[in-house]
Amino acid sequence: xxxxxxxxxxxxxxxxxxxxxxxxxxxxxxxxxxxxxxxxxxxxxxxxxxxxxxxxxxxxxxxxxxxxxxxxxxxxxxxxxxxxxxxxxxxxxxxxxxxxxxxxxxxxxxxxxxxxxxxxxxxxxxxxxxxxxxxxxxxxxxxxxxxxxxxxxxxxxxxxxxxxxxxxxxxxxxxxxxxxxxxxxxxxxxxxxxxxxxxxxxxxxxxxxxxxxxxxxxxxxxxxxxxxxxxxxxxxxxxxxxxxxxxxxxxxxxxxxxxxxxxxxxxxxxxxxxxxxxxxxxxxxxxxxxxxxxxxxxxxxxxxxxxxxxxxxxxxxxxxxxxxxxxxx
Amino acid sequence: xxxxxxxxxxxxxxxxxxxxxxxxxxxxxxxxxxxxxxxxxxxxxxxxxxxxxxxxxxxxxxxxxxxxxxxxxxxxxxxxxxxxxxxx
Lengths: 329, 88
Hints:
The complex is a heterodimer.
Chain A: H1 8-13, E1 24-28, E2 42-43, H2 46-49, E3 61-64, H3 66-77, H4 82-89, E4 95-97, H5 105-113, E5 118-121, H6 125-139, E6 143-153, E7 156-161, H7 168-177, E8 181-193, E9 197-202, E10 210-213, E11 217-220, H8 221-225, E12 233-235, E13 238-244, E14 259-263, E15 266-275, H9 281-296, H10 301-322
Parallel strand pairs in A: 2-3, 3-4, 4-5, 7-13, 13-15
Antiparallel strand pairs in A: 1-5, 6-7, 6-8, 8-9, 9-12, 10-11, 14-15
Helix pairs in contact in A: 7-9
Chain B: E1 2-7, H1 16-27, E2 32-37, E3 40-43, H2 47-52, E4 60-66, H3 70-82
Antiparallel strand pairs in B: 1-4, 2-3, 2-4
Helix pairs in contact in B: 1-3
């Protein structure tokens, strides 16, 4: 299966919110905009410019800050272009100049000749580096599409899974009605960020927060319930799997044992909830969310309850040593 | 498990009506049905999923069916693609 190539043009076009914006524009080497960015990392090419090319990380985006540009200017004044030409012999994805700096004409002509895109941003190098690393690490994070509904209930991101027609969307609709938020319906795009966080979002921004309800068709949740009823992305913290009630199957009755679901190497607590007419699924999901919050605060209802039962049995047993069977009423 | 490549032959691509037709057909079968476009794999019984693929004219898709009636399912779905979803 072919993995989508992420090109320099995609990086420029990337739709980012204000505080994440990279403010990139292309100032040269347009022919190379289709070059692929294959490594989510940066390189400051100081050593390369000075002529040291051992272990030159040419596959990475090259960042030119004030220091590099000052060095380039010095080299240009002295008429030395051999190291530059050597640098462009490598297949560099792109060169980015920060602080709105512009390289000399010699840099442009050599870059243009080797078809390496030259970009410029008004951000300072440190800020640009942290933003671009964040963007790239999200982009290169392991990703998976799951069939389910992602909702935020009392601040907990709950992924509702289950076969088609089991009532995932209907349960989500009632949760929205009760003041909770929809993140994505049917197609949930899940990314593993930092290796331990699962971030879920709708797979397609244009289709946005629409839901398909059998009998109604496609509805627009934003228009019906307002912007307060939706969210763009949310960390998946709990998985609820709905399934048809199976009389043969043993369901968890106590809740002291946690089942975990492995998604992209991250283990997420999972609840299996049987569906049957008369069972109010949205309220069960709400309660599951609140219980999950209690657990995060260190209070584990089922375990706490069991400990109390054990204590009670123990004290009762201890007392019976001193009192005869007849003394206890 | 059965896989088959299909091409979208109707001009408008897969919009709401063809998607609904696909889902209706897929839901008649017990098998698990998936549709793949490049790296995206979605559930063939989900209308929003199919629309999210954004499959336009001449796009190649892979139909995957897994289950007891997989052969008939792939056959029925492929027939929809071949008949241009009764459009044009």
